[in-house]
Design a protein that fits this description.
homodimer, Ubiquitin-like (UB roll), 11 helices, 16 strands, seven-stranded mixed beta sheet
Amino acid sequence: MTKMTEIKGNIASPKGFVADATHAELKFQKLDMGVILSEVPAAVAGVFTTNKVSAAPVKLDKTVVAGGVAQAIIVNSAIANAVTGEEGLINAKKTQRLLAEKFDLDAKHVAVCSTGVIGKQLPMDKIALGISKLSATNGHSDGFSEAILTTDLVKKEIVYQVELGGEVVTVAGVCKGSGMIHPNMATMLGFITTDAKIAQPLLQEILSEVIEVTFNQITVDGDTSTNDTVLVLANGQAGNAEITADTADYDGFKAVLAAVCQTLAKKIAADGEGATKLIEVNVTGAPDELSARMIAKHIVGSSLVKTAIFGADPNWGRVISAIGQVAPFEVPDIELEIQSDLVLLHSTPVDFDQAELSEKLKEKIVVIDVELNNGDKSGTAWGCDLTYKYVEINALYHS
Amino acid sequence: MTKMTEIKGNIASPKGFVADATHAELKFQKLDMGVILSEVPAAVAGVFTTNKVSAAPVKLDKTVVAGGVAQAIIVNSAIANAVTGEEGLINAKKTQRLLAEKFDLDAKHVAVCSTGVIGKQLPMDKIALGISKLSATNGHSDGFSEAILTTDLVKKEIVYQVELGGEVVTVAGVCKGSGMIHPNMATMLGFITTDAKIAQPLLQEILSEVIEVTFNQITVDGDTSTNDTVLVLANGQAGNAEITADTADYDGFKAVLAAVCQTLAKKIAADGEGATKLIEVNVTGAPDELSARMIAKHIVGSSLVKTAIFGADPNWGRVISAIGQVAPFEVPDIELEIQSDLVLLHSTPVDFDQAELSEKLKEKIVVIDVELNNGDKSGTAWGCDLTYKYVEINALYHS
């Protein structure tokens, strides 16, 4: 077990990072542009949407990550720069160049992210204005987490410290996302900075593994977006001995990165559009991890389960129907607990206090535990309830 | 093109069939039990839920269909006899035997279907009472379509006639289902009777193919159920020359069966829980039919698309994001029409009258046409909008 400590801070807490935020006039009054800067070129790893309709900045950032080095991430909200054709790509590249010029960086070390409305071109005069107002003096690093939001109600940020290679290493994460949240990175932007020293290929390997069990295990409405991106910058300024494969430090770093990603993922699920509750589904006793994760995610994504939990109804029938729908094997021996109350044993209903469990379902966090008794692998997924407010937000929002 | 005529009638309209319905006291006052009887043993074909948690009657009916011959279908609503273990299977078999005794049939020629609450045992005294009240004199054949309903708001029935093998052949269909409707047969019961003469293996082959493009292409909330079943009885009483493979009659019979199934499927989608609109999505220009159908179904099942249509918002961004999410190939040249208004050409937004299109989206049927320009295969799917009422129905319904 890696000993890690949560500290107060923000995305600029790891050594050698600064962040800033400003109002580029894309939104009315609110902060709508942010930047993360590393004092030195950093190893960069990234994971992107699997949506075939990927946005211009996603296409651009794939080339940055392929280069292995980055020193800055510039983000705007309000406009996604998605479904914008050639012009969109030109604008993303222009944003990249403007930021590089402003901070005297190599343009190919600048990642560009956008989130917001699909199908509109970036107003480049406003982008230029915003960039001109950004500073590298850590003036408004707390504002970054706000500048990247769209329909989110709360800021989502976490900082952990851990001792690795004889030094204190800090890992900070920030993200946005509340609608269109499903697997595979959905209108979800996540940024992680760390002062750990680690080679890029290993960083990418760890990130890809961690994403599978964290960000890719949340679902709000089953839709994925065109812009989803998670980027990690590791600038080595902690002075730790380089983290290499098959060492305790490797395990420790992976654990802290997983903790950051899991915390952020749960914050996104809890802030799902219209959500009143965070739902966590743990599936154990599966023959393989992939099935366990898939079943957990299918349960937490079921509209019938989500509405039942909104209504505080211990409707276990909907849970086991969801299991049966996707399980790639027979499930004759399911044990099901809702809020720690046993409701099903050997796939057969057991007596439980309906009124008492309904009361427990009014809590802000609902936990469903499924034991399949068919192996020793497990998986967890997170989501939220489906409410009137979700329908209102998405029916009244006009494109 | 097969010439077919819709006629007024019910599931007992084909020659040699009768139907009845009664109140077995499973529901309060309403009809809750129905039977379909053929005068002679009929060829039987069936398609069942793919949910691994299949209900007792599904397990039983698979053996009936495997036998190839059936003469009766007994259906109860209110209780699904699902997740009921050994006792549930014993009760399904007892229901089968009671009906066989009542009408002097071979028990293995009796199919049994149940729909309703999961996890409760059938009260066999009430089942016996209901069966004792059923008659074979066609007394209440119109009541059958009502007796099988659960949360449905309307009865769903259709009868077509077509000339095949020198005789008029009648095909009648009836179904129920409004929630938990997704692919692969979801709390959906469908029954089709026909007086056509056709051998069982061919009937099963045609049914399996037709189901893929009709019932399996509707989605209400993405969940499938434990009990879904479609059964076809063909008793040969029309006196037509037997329908054999690779003939015009084969094509004609398949066309009329498809018309019956498509009509029923659309009725289910339009009556989805809380629905105010039927949504039809046509995908053309795909390299293969499976992809076309999958993309169509994913669009029509997207919560974001469903809420946008509830809100009469021509939010094409959500449609193309849904396409990109599941398309197994690149989609650089999408042409998108909503209610026949072009909104996207070569995957790039075109100007359209937002207010006018929003008005058109207030109609009861919304059609979305997607041309992928990547082949010549097509697929269609049907669904409904996602409304406050859906959340209300599923949050307030208590298990």
